[in-house]
Amino acid sequence: MSALPNSIQARDVRYLLHPVTNARRHEETGPIVIESGDGIYVTDSDGRQYIEAMAGLWSVGVGFGEKRLADAAHRQMLKLPFYHSFSSKSNEPAILLAEKLVEISHERLQRVFFTNSGSEANDTVVKMIWYLNNARGKPQKKTFLSRLGAYHGITIASGSLTGLPTNHRDFDLPAIPVKHLTCPHYWRQGREGESEADFVDRLAQELEDVIAEAGADTIAAFIGEPLMGAGGVMPPPEGYWVRVQEICRRHDILIVADEVINGFGRLGTMFASDYYGIDPDVMVVSKQITSSYQPLAAILFSDEIYQGIADNTAKIGTFGHGFTASAHPVACAVGLENLAIIEENGLVANAKASGEVLQRELARFRSHPLVGEVRGVGLIAAVELVADKATKARFDPVGKAGAPLFGFGHEHGVIVRAIGDQIAFCPPMIIRPDEVVEMVARFERALTDTAAHLAA
């Protein structure tokens, strides 16, 4: 950090509290201030350029510096910079974006509600389903099923759905009725001698047992990321989602697909629900809906759910929920243009093609002494570092390898994400195969430095 008392880094330390950050350590190191971005690259205030291997925060699908999105925002700001969607008000970009989302998503998803973030969206899903079940005369049907290792946001409700200890500790979460099931990560959670099919059977039986114990009439919904992201990029085992859906349908439990990270092409299909054969009752999208150029999220849900909610608004007089910026016209205009870029530039197909290169290049590290597992689908992947390859033993403390690798990555011009000792990759969907090779080469240099650091 610059020693100048009035440097931008010093002013950051003086005024800002950062998310997912050790505040006392940040006071000592200060921030890396990102000043600009272009394509897959970002540049800091000292002029250093990095490949942004995380697309910012799993989100900048069309890359940085996309003029079409800036122009779309500018046009809408001049025309109508803001209007609310309360009390039967609307705006054209929100209407057109809702129509587009229904067009490209699953046939049963016919209705849309806009929020500003995935956290707000999942919080809203909880309230919507509670509201619906009260209207259905089933006030006891309130419990949500989630999974350990899941990430669904950080509000009180969505943070409760999240299955990560650091998002619960000292926040008094979970604070809503939620039951967390086993994380569907076969490599880490499978038992000795247990096949992948046996693992799926065990998780299916666990789901059946939890429903039987709680009573199906108390369980409202099962929420899950099709491919778990922020918990460490964990693709589910084959057949997992088929079993989950069959059990939930049989017990009148709604399926909520959290596609906040997965959606709009990341796995090489428009939605990860397409990839895994999920037919959700509710789907939540954010991040790549605008490539995070504007805050926006959307809840897509079935007409059956809508009709139940709508009937209750007629009965009690209103749907008493919403945000000042719900269906914000500038955000929706950017979202429309962003989806047009994804379609016109073939970014879903590019994610599939460049994703094959990413998975192939990372697979080379499976024999590395620090690497326990390499996993992923399309343009999302993780390399898990372990203290002992034979036993899969984790580092003690967690992060002993991941934290230095994160730092060495910056030295070699690549920004990855260290989730403990799991190194995540989620580059912009515009990335070319040759750029993937260069990104992984920079990671390899950081991995070499990490091995030397641990051996010292």
Automatic annotation (TrEMBL):
SUPFAM superfamilies: PLP-dependent transferases (SSF53383). One of its GO terms (molecular function) is pyridoxal phosphate binding. Coiled coil: none annotated. It is an enzyme of class 2 (transferase). Keywords: Aminotransferase, Pyridoxal phosphate, Pyruvate, Transferase. CDD domains: OAT_like (cd00610). GO terms for biological process: biotin biosynthetic process; gamma-aminobutyric acid metabolic process. It comes from the Bacteria. Gene3D superfamilies: Aspartate Aminotransferase, domain 1, Type I PLP-dependent aspartate aminotransferase-like (Major domain). Its EC number is 2.6.1.96. Its cofactor is pyridoxal 5'-phosphate. PANTHER family: ADENOSYLMETHIONINE-8-AMINO-7-OXONONANOATE AMINOTRANSFERASE. Belongs to the class-III pyridoxal-phosphate-dependent aminotransferase family. This is 4-aminobutyrate--pyruvate transaminase. It comes from Aureimonas pseudogalii.
